[in-house]
Amino acid sequence: MRRMSATCPWLLLAAGLEIGLSACIDDGLSGLPDRAMITAGRARGAIGLLPQRPEAPGGWAVSAAASRLGEVAVPVAGLDGVLAEVAAGHAVVIGQGVHAPAVATGYDLRAGTMTVLGGDGRSGAQPLARWRRHWEAGGLWAVAVMLPGELPVAGDQESYLRAAARVEQAASPWEAVLVYDAGLARWPDNAGALSGLGNSLFHLGDAKGAAAAFAAAIERSNDASERERIRHLAADAIGTGVAAQPVSATEKSLSDPGQ
Asked: How many Å apart are CA 164 and CA 182, to the nearest integer?
């Protein structure tokens, strides 16, 4: 994807001057279209995730609401990250300081605008200078929301797997399987994702598939303590059944301070 070049005049944007952004794009990196808009269905779905009042930086309430619906919510860094996710068709919830969060649904780089949808259903194109001031007031946090089975454009492995763990805990096992399976397509050797997949498959009644996923997780883990945790998880699931509210295997792996 294309990224904002170091010469992009952010000071002019901050001053509120109306400029096109074509000169702010590094033409040596291709892939980001000059304009993009997500579908109306995606936009409407994202409205339901919006809190009715300002949210602290991080978008935790949005992420929790998305997880309950089986959707993946991952943090997005920088304006180029927001644009890339929108271009991929993903709704991006953005903080707006004293205003309630809104959804970035489209952009036009040549016109220098961002299209934003509010919780009241009203949508409009804003000059990027004005939009960025609201975003900065909100702490520059943004969360991309996608369906199970989809991947963020540039999300890191840990943030995606934390989102997968939330889906595993809050949504259905089938949605968790889709999320873990998509993550493993990008990070095939991640032991936490494999163990989470095993846990989810067991909840679906696929003990054989769960055992295979747990075995692969143990084989790919380079950490002795992690391998032992996965063995215990597999024994608890396949040997003695699964509790009604299981602890996410990925959450265990990622929350370990030794990792």
From this structure: 10
Does the domain spanning 172-255 belong to CATH 1.25.40?
A: yes
Fold of 10-146: Cathepsin B; Chain A (3.90.70)
pLDDT tens for 52-73 read: 776 666 688 899 999 999 999 9
The candidate with the shortest Cα–Cα distance to 167, out of 146, 152, 143, 187, is 146
Domain chopping of the chain, boundaries: 10-146, 172-255
The amino acid at 188: P
User: What pTM did the predictor assign?
Assistant: 0.80
pLDDT, tens digit, 9 for 90 and up, residues 151-195: 999 778 999 999 999 999 999 999 999 999 999 999 999 999 999
pLDDT tens for residues 102-140? Answer: 999 999 998 999 999 988 888 999 998 888 888 888 788
